[in-house]
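User: I've been trying to design a sequence by hand for this structure and keep getting stuck. Would you show me what you'd pick, starting by listing the structure so we're on the same page?

Assistant: Good idea, let's start from the same input. This is the structure you sent:
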């Protein structure tokens, strides 16, 4: 492989580590990467390894059913803040831009530490020009993610979960992340969030709810949404 064997092997190990499976090399779909990876040989067309674009395509192919679609940078909370800038700079090197609501405030520290460790390893080995944040940047990024993280619903005090709408909300919206508190968004904001979640479910191979279920979820979110001009619960 013209000396690229160690590089490809390193990338494969990183991808395997991302999904938490050791020793399992999934077969990739031909296309996007300019080739494919096989369980037997880990072969990839070399055009798929040229730059970060190849890296992102490879990661998306290998983890397509585990990663939500990236969001538009303009959709980030406080999109012109330093935290948002750092997210766009570092978090999109290997995959789409995640939203801070992907994890809760207590969940983000472990995720950030894991991603930064991989970026540093790749940066030290000069893989694909991947860069790692400084300690100060990491702290700023984590603070931003925690500030705008998913707010989990307190089931002990939540209202209406035993209604048909509440059950539809609970069963559907807990498949990929912590059950969100409806009061973190207003009724006017929730439809766009729900639409984005539908697209993520398609990308991740999750069953998309029926229209009647979506209507029930919308009813529940609307009823317990944040009142405009007030903080969430």
């Amino acid at each position: 492989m013209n000396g690229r064997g160690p590089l490809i092997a390193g990338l494969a190990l990183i991808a395997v580590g991302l999904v938490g499976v050791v020793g399992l090399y999934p077969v990739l779909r031909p296309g996007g990467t300019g080739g494919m990876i096989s369980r037997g040989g880990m072969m990839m067309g070399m055009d798929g390894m040229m730059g970060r674009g190849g890296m992102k395509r490879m990661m998306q192919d290998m983890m397509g059913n585990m990663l939500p679609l990236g969001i538009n940078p303009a959709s980030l909370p406080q999109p012109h803040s330093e935290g948002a800038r750092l997210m766009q700079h570092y978090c999109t090197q290997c995959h789409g831009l995640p939203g801070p609501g992907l994890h809760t405030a207590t969940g983000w520290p472990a995720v950030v530490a894991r991603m930064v460790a991989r970026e540093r390893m790749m940066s030290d080995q000069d893989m694909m020009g991947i860069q790692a944040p400084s300690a100060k940047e990491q702290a700023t990024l984590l603070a931003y993610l925690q500030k705008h993280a998913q707010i989990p619903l307190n089931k002990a005090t939540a209202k209406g979960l035993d209604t048909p709408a509440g059950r539809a909300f609970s069963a559907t919206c807990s498949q990929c992340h912590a059950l969100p508190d409806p009061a973190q968004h207003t009724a006017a904001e929730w439809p766009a969030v729900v639409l984005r979640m539908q697209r993520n479910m398609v990308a991740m191979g999750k069953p998309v709810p029926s229209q009647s279920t979506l209507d029930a979820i919308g009813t529940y979110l609307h009823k317990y949404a944040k009142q405009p001009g007030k903080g969430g619960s």
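That's my pick for every position. To get oriented when you compare it with your attempt: Residues 73-147 form one domain. The chain has three domains: 5-63, 73-147, 164-223.
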